[in-house]
Amino acid sequence: MEENHEDVDILIVGAGLAGLTTALSLHRLGLRSMVLESSESLRITGFALTLWTNAWRALDAIGIGNTLRQKSTQMKGFKIASPDTGLFTSEQALDKDRKFEGYESRCVKRKDLLETMVSELPPGTIRYSSKVVAIDELGRFKLVHLADGSILKTKALIGCDGVNSVVAKWLGLDTPVSVGRSAIRGLVEFPDGSGFDPMFHVNFGGGVRFGFLPVDDKTVYWFCTFTPSQVPTYEEDWQVNPIKMKQFVLTRINKMPQEAQDVVERTTLSSISYAQLKFRLPWNVLFGNIVKDNVCVAGDALHPMTPDIGQGGCSSLEDSVVLGRCLGEALLKKPNEEDEFERIKKGLEKYGKERRWRSFSLISVAYCVGFMQESKGKLMSFLRKVWFSSYTPTAFLKMANYECGNLVC
């Protein structure tokens, strides 16, 4: 049995945003890792994501920020539609009070982001078609069993395997729960240019949250979140009949200007996706095992959250830089009397301590913001108008004004 083990010093499960960023962080420090990906190729579902100041700081820390800035447009503020008429009736600068000088907010294609990371990693870092089915222990090592029967023995196991994380389950974390809302997302190309201002175009209320923003001059990303009670019985048919998703969104934005409807109309069916929104209960992050000995979780495996403050991907980037730094400190500093496993354990504990409260805060704020943005009723509509004009842009920038630090202290 022992002969069948393949030894890997640091094993990362999941070649998504958190997994690749962690691998690249370690690579920048001279530490080799292996990334296991269950799919046959790089997963680029989700189309695009908004990256705020904290994410760009993390991308700069791993050396790819400027490359991605060239492929994205800096957002300036919000264009807000009236929930009554659907027309864009007001604008709000992101940093109207100039409290967050140097802020960044850009939408990036997921494909560009992940492929940029892969291009910076050593060949062979990612092992595709490698689904984890079980995790065992051999002394202080972890044994990771794959669906093809192979077994990997590792000194450090990092779970970046998303909402349905096998590693999180092994750690004893609760399964993420539904928030009672779903999301339809799309990406559309305008060959001659979209002509949209670099703004978030948004419409909230009545149980629906719809918005779109330019990624670059020719690409626009859009989203529509809603409560399942609004979804007709053909919801299960959406995966095979995506035209129904498009029709559903169009019926919810039929009061909005034609330019908004055109964004959805022009989206090809292959560029539309549907997902139920889930989150990890905040107290599970606060009191659960996010780190145990030489095992930890990061990204959506740690803190799945609703998309309402745009921090899911951003916080995954934060996780990975902090994790890379903590492991680097543990493995690269001149060894003392402690053995390597003890140093790895302390490094991961330091990571967990730094990320626990931050994750708790982001999950909680995102849930509350989403509840207010989509709730029905005249009182909530009034509070939303007051709250959005005076608080929302500041809240977005405040949550994003976080410094994950460099890879080397």
Automatic annotation (TrEMBL):
Coiled-coil stretches noted in the UniProt entry, renumbered to this chain: none
Chain ranges passing through the membrane: none
InterPro entries referenced in this protein's UniProt entry, alphabetically: FAD-bd, FAD/NAD-bd_sf, MOase
Oxidoreductase keyword on record: yes
Pfam families per UniProt: FAD_binding_3
Domain FAD-binding: 7-332
Gene3D superfamilies the record matches: FAD/NAD(P)-binding domain
Entry keyword Oxidoreductase: yes
Protein name (database record): FAD-binding domain-containing protein
Taxonomic lineage of the native organism: Eukaryota, Viridiplantae, Streptophyta, Embryophyta, Tracheophyta
